[in-house]
Design brief:
- This protein is about 70% helix and about 0% strand.
- It contains six helices and no strands.
């Protein structure tokens, strides 16, 4: 038993920082994830294909900055969601929101397949119904 206590004493600062980060991610996900899921249009996933190809040469400077920011936030959400799978928080929903923010080929098909999961879709639609929003439409 003493090696375990010794390990906790040696890494006490790391344990406190990990705990604080866990609490912040949990509280942050409780605030932001519902807002984002409510703001998504009901027909967001119903289109068969979207044109997600981006031509860098056609982008303005501000559009490029926006895409960099949006993708960085998406990666941060995915990483936080992965951490929340082990720590308290809404891990799966956070990962889905992060994937929606990213731009990569096949994104809509992948996210739509995840959203089709009955448990995830029911959870999102319950949240949307509490906010008087129509349920997410997902083609079968």
């Amino acid at each position: 038993m003493t090696p375990i206590l010794e390990w906790f004493r040696n890494y006490e600062v790391l344990i406190w920082w990990t705990g604080a980060a866990s609490v912040l991610m949990f509280l942050g996900s409780l605030c932001t994830i519902p807002i984002i899921l409510i703001k998504i249009p009901a027909d967001y996933f119903s289109s068969l294909e979207t044109n997600s190809r981006i031509n860098i040469r056609d982008l303005s400077f501000f559009r490029l900055l926006y895409l960099i920011f949006k993708n960085t936030v998406g990666i941060a959400f995915i990483l936080a969601g992965l951490i929340m799978l082990l720590l308290p928080g809404q891990g799966i929903l956070t990962i889905i929101v992060g994937m929606c923010l990213l731009d990569f080929p096949g994104k809509y098909r992948l996210v739509r397949n995840i959203i089709r999961n009955k448990t995830i879709l029911v959870t999102i639609n319950k949240l949307r119904s509490k906010a008087d929003k129509p349920p997410i439409e997902v083609p079968r």
